[in-house]
Amino acid sequence: MRKETFLAGGVRTAIGSLSGALAEVSAPALGGIVVKAALERAGLSFDQVDEVIFGNVIGAGCGQNVARQSAIGAGLSVSVGATTVNKVCGSGLKAVMLADQAIQCGEVSAIVAGGTENMTRAPYLLEKARQGYRLGHGEIVDAMIRDGLWDAYRNIHMGSCGDLCARRFQ
């Protein structure tokens, strides 16, 4: 028999602009603010949370396991499980789906699920710097484009993919 899963305490950060007011706030810090606010809105205490599942696409420069950092930043115990999901644009939604599955399987009772990102803080990458640049030009790669906004299979910008899909399924 399927258990009932409830969404409670929905929260999101403000929709900012590139290099705007939130430029200096890391994705894990934004996540921590959201986790704490979601628990307050849902009326859950920190000790009721079994796990945090958070989506994050551009992990470069964020440090390990953004979900864990967000959970600890919110004030949750280090004993609370935390998993970071990268499914590109669907990362946050996949986190919610995984949370539902964990509840259905009886693994947990309460999960905080969502996602966090700060595109302004996406670093630039020097992909050959570890081996050293010898002769010729080097390339600086924008992690925001490479990891977040570029189709790795068609080698085109995701905005172009959206346009192609819109035309195809009109």
Describe the structure in your own words:
- The protein has 170 residues and is α/β, with parallel strands linked by helices.
- The chain has two domains: 27-121, Thiolase/Chalcone synthase (Peroxisomal Thiolase, Chain A, domain 1, 3-Layer(aba) Sandwich), CATH 3.40.47.10; 124-168, no CATH class.
- Helix content is 34%, strand content 14%.
- It is built from five helices and seven strands.
- It has helices spanning 27-42, 66-74, 91-104, 143-149, 158-168, and strands spanning 51-55, 81-85, 111-115, 124-125, 141-142, 150-151, 156-157.
- The chain has a three-stranded parallel beta sheet with strand order 2-1-3, sandwiched between helices. A two-stranded antiparallel sheet has the order 4-5.
- α2 links the parallel β1 and β2.
- It starts with 26 loop residues before the first helix and ends with a helix.
- The model has no long low-confidence stretch (mean pLDDT 95).
What is the strand and helix layout of this fold?
Layout: H1 27-42, E1 51-55, H2 66-74, E2 81-85, H3 91-104, E3 111-115, E4 124-125, E5 141-142, H4 143-149, E6 150-151, E7 156-157, H5 158-168
Parallel strand pairs: 1-2, 1-3
Antiparallel strand pairs: 4-5, 6-7
Number of domains: 2
- Please indicate the percent range of residues in DSSP E strands (runs of 2 or more): 5-15%
Can you write the helix and strand succession as a string? Answer: HEHEHEEEHEEH
CATH level-3 fold name of the largest domain: Peroxisomal Thiolase, Chain A, domain 1
CATH fourth-tier homologous superfamily of the largest domain? Thiolase/Chalcone synthase
User: What is the CA-CA span between the terminal residues?
Assistant: 39 Å
CATH classification class of the largest domain: Alpha Beta
Percent of residues in helices: 25-40%
Overall geometry comes to globular
Q: Over the alpha carbons, how many angstroms does the gyration radius reach?
A: 18 Å
Number of helices: 5
Uncertain spans, ≥5 residues at pLDDT below 50? none
Largest pleated sheet: 3 strands, parallel
The CATH architecture assignment of the largest domain turns out to be 3-Layer(aba) Sandwich
